[in-house]
Design a protein that fits this description.
single chain, alpha/beta, 4-stranded parallel beta sheet, 20 helices, about 35% helix
Length: about 625
């Protein structure tokens, strides 16, 4: 009988104690004396968010298949428990065994968004593991990071022993095998890191030195250890059908943010939007086999009891066998009374037909992501969506009975003018007009159009990685222009407007393209009390600005300036297949407002063809 790490008194005095007790359906229990490796897999945010993440479920299942490894889970304790753990000096623990994380062999942290960086320090701190890798000894676990933010690991470099660059299904087993060899040989901590550095895709920050120019930009980034590679190659699983995929994912006791079965139908995206990091990182597009998806969907529904299944992909409409898959799911799900969720579909006649079959039209809303308010700016960002297509889709949706539309845009994109901003209001108005063109007796009440704008953040490995950002006040001015223009529209009562926090945007931009100097600011902000920065009720911009000031680091160095094409970026030592030359060409085309066709229309020579698979070889056999 396992003993819970928290006593009854604590569990009864905190919010949602089920976050911390483990033992959920499909969680994996093993005998710790019968395994060689104990691996704690961490999502550095609250349980409900972390349990919604497919990547951890895939790795959890993959590691659990190894008889020599016990993979357990850990999440960020919510502030109520955080306070108690500090007061009572309780070490952070894993859900399955309830054992302290500090006794594990590995702590693997998935880094999905920049605003969780202080939570990574919270997890290390509460685990009683030294924050900095340089201060750890043979007593401590190896701390490794992965996920999309590991593609610029530098702001986090001092806190991690290593980073895994790429998709986890590839060389993780090699790393775990190397660890067993190292453990048997009784070698030093540094010697294991040298063994790890030899494995493709593994980056050990301590084995690299950074030199800076006087202006603060990077002069050189060089290995200081013979085992460290000049370039770290992204790891990609090219056959996404014959690989790991959980058939019995862990089912939480309490409602998770994404409370449903997730079926990943493909990886990557053919579209090439110039602001989108995922679209570049996960090239080339690789599809899963239709029969595999049918079989997996059935297994997932049987093993979890979830009442909804969601198709996961960056652009579901581009999956070549979508009609066949949806026909199968409609039949299978209606028999089981399971709902189907279809995110990231382009709104056209086919998708409206499908959605009318699988959704309650009265309750559901349709989502369009034009991203920019004018056709000129949509061409700059290579969105590949025309106003005509948007209006046609909205018109068909309204005729089909929908009354609610969500529109997503970005403000602060490169080359943006006031006309582009006002264009957001004008497009929303044109969509509203389409609704009121329907004869009154055929309408279902008033239509509701919700316009949401986020502020654009340039990300590494995108054509916009050279772009400058704006000050907090400038972003708020942009939102004000949109708000006032919406108010000036004839159908303004049908249009609702929301916008993202500007101070969060500024900080996200600093962390996204930061270098190692930002790590000191991160640690200082955390020690001042910054944590759960992605939650507006806990975000403290003032603490971050104090930290910058005390350390004499100018935050605007990372945000305002447009980079020169010659500048060495903190992430340039990583190779993702897509080349820097391609990204430069795309940046230059953006400045001219030229579009690039998608991968199925024409190969644009991005470099991902080097992986010899996926969309790059379609139709060439």
């Amino acid at each position: 009988m396992r003993k819970l790490a928290l006593n009854d008194e604590i569990l009864l005095n905190i919010e949602k104690p089920a976050r911390y007790i483990g033992n959920e359906v499909n969680s994996v229990m093993k005998d710790k004396d019968q395994v060689d490796i104990r691996f704690a897999m961490c999502f550095p945010d609250v349980y409900e968010i972390g349990m919604s993440h497919l990547g951890i479920q895939i790795l959890y299942d993959m590691f659990s298949q190894r008889e020599d490894t016990w993979c357990e889970r850990v999440y960020s304790p919510w502030p109520d428990l955080d306070k108690i753990m500090r007061e009572e000096k309780l070490p952070l623990f894993a859900l399955e065994s309830q054992d302290p994380i500090k006794d594990f062999d590995f702590l693997g942290i998935t880094i999905q968004y920049e605003m969780c960086y202080t939570n990574i320090l919270q997890v290390l701190d509460l685990s009683q593991i030294p924050l900095r890798a340089a201060d750890r000894t043979e007593e401590h676990p190896f701390v490794m990071g992965g996920g999309p933010c590991a593609y610029n690991p530098e702001p986090l470099a001092p806190f991690f022993d290593m980073f895994y660059i790429g998709e986890g299904e590839t060389v993780f087993n090699d790393l775990l095998d190397a660890y067993k060899d190292w453990k048997k040989a009784g070698k030093s901590r540094k010697e294991f890191l040298e063994m790890a550095a030899e494995i493709p895709g593994i980056y050990v920050p301590a084995f690299y030195d950074v030199e800076y120019h006087e202006d603060g930009t990077i002069k050189a980034f060089t290995p200081n250890n013979p085992h460290a590679k000049e370039k770290i190659e992204k790891q990609v699983v090219m056959d996404v059908t014959h690989t790991y995929y959980p058939r019995k994912p862990v089912v939480p006791f309490i409602k998770a943010t994404q409370d449903r079965v997730v079926l990943e139908i493909q990886r990557g995206c053919i579209r090439g939007c110039r602001f989108c990091q995922a679209g570049m990182l996960y090239r080339p597009t690789r599809e899963r086999d239709l029969e595999f998806l049918k079989d997996t969907a059935r297994a997932l529904m049987e093993s979890t009891g979830h009442e909804e299944i969601s198709l996961s992909s960056l652009s579901s409409s581009d999956y070549s066998q979508l009609p066949e898959l949806i026909d199968y799911l409609i039949e299978e799900c209606s028999a089981r009374k399971v709902n189907i969720s279809l995110p990231s579909l382009r709104i056209d006649a086919f998708s409206l037909d499908v959605m009318s079959k699988v959704q309650d039209i009265k309750k559901s809303s349709l989502t369009f992501a034009p991203e920019a308010g004018s056709q000129r700016l949509r061409d700059v960002i290579n969105k590949g969506l025309t106003e005509e297509v948007i209006l046609d889709g909205a018109s068909k949706a309204f005729q089909g009975g929908w009354t609610r539309v969500k529109l997503y845009f970005m403000l602060g994109l490169p080359t943006e003018t006031e006309e582009d901003m006002k264009g957001i209001a004008h497009l929303a108005e044109e969509i509203a007009k389409k609704y009121y063109e329907i004869p009154k007796d055929q309408r279902h009440g008033r239509c509701q159009i919700v316009v949401s704008t986020s502020f654009f953040v340039p990300k590494p490995f995108t054509p916009f990685q050279w772009a400058g950002m704006f000050r907090k006040e400038d972003y708020l001015d942009k939102a004000k222009i949109v708000k006032e223009e919406i108010r000036a529209q004839l159908n303004q009562k049908s249009i609702k407007y929301n916008y993202h926090e500007a101070d969060v945007t500024v900080l996200e931009g600093i962390l996204a393209r930061g270098d190692r100097k930002v790590a000191d600011v991160l640690e200082a902000a955390y020690k001042k009390g910054a944590v759960f920065d992605s939650w507006s009720e806990y975000f403290r911009y003032d603490l971050w600005m104090e930290a910058f000031e005390e350390l004499g680091i100018d935050p605007e160095f990372y945000t305002l300036r447009e980079r020169s094409l010659e500048e060495i970026f903190p992430w340039d030592f990583i190779s993702i297949g897509v080349t820097k030359n391609f990204l430069k060409r795309e940046w230059q085309k953006a400045m001219k407002g030229e579009i690039t066709p998608n991968c199925r229309q024409q190969c644009s020579g991005c470099g991902a063809g080097a992986y010899k698979g996926g969309v790059c070889v379609e139709g060439k056999n």
